Amino acid sequence: MWHIMKIYSSYGINDFVICCGYKGYYIKEYFSDYFLHESDVTFDFRGDKERITIHEQHAEPWRVTLVDTGLKTETGGRLLRARKYIEGDTFLMTYGDGVSDIDISSLIAYHKKEGKKVTVTAIRPMGRYGALTLDNSLRYVTNFHEKPLGDGNFISGGFFVLEPEILEYIAGDDTTFEREPLERLANEGQIAAYLHRGYWQSMDTLRDKIKLGELWEKGDAPWKVWE
After folding, report:
1. Measured between alpha carbons, how far is residue 43 from residues 36, 59, 63 in Å?
2. CATH number for the domain whose boundaries are 2-217
3. φ, ψ for residue 88 (rounded to 5)?
4. Closest C-alpha among 43, 60, 59 to residue 51
5. pLDDT digits (tens, 9 = 90+) for 217-226
6. With the C-alpha atoms ordered 109, 113, 118, 123, is the resulting torsion angle positive or negative?
7. Alpha-carbon distance 82 to 16, whole Å?
8. Backbone region of residue 47 per phi and psi (left: phi > 0; alpha: psi in -120 to 50; beta: other values)
9. Segments in the chain below pLDDT 70
10. Which helix H or strand E contains 100, and what residues bound it?
């Protein structure tokens, strides 16, 4: 999650809403201590009151809102539960299990140019994930298939740009965002596809975790777009 947030932050996006579910308290504890862990600090126990002095700090300039969205809530339902923190403006959304060297500024500019309610990053990996069907211009999504057998088609790499009205397409906690809402938006011609031909990798398995960890340890992580 920190890596994904660093990708966004490198493009000047520092206001985050995290939809917490299973073991969300670990995420809350992490961010509760993050600023302190990334700073030089003096604890002064002399006298009647403990005094804490923060010196040089190295934490990112982030504003992080952590929302308890339930243990069994589907992806659409989680967005709906976070509504009051994201409603009113165009916002970006991605999952917590994929990293990329995607150009976020170009993604946002493309979304504004196309004028659709949704822009999804379309990638072409080895073929383990759901597919997007694009029109002949490769600019618009005509159908959205949730995780069929890999066949070399374009798939959703996450990294969405969304207009606030997409929340009206979500019925409740049981709504999977990638099904009814995106299928309906695709039928309405309201999903633009931003083609990303660079690096993208999910972390769905232990093998993925080991692979990404090795790249990071070697200093050869393609998704590290920050200094």
Report:
1. 11, 19, 25
2. 3.90.550.10
3. 110, -25
4. 43
5. 999 999 999 9
6. negative
7. 11
8. left
9. 126-130, 146-152
10. strand 98-100
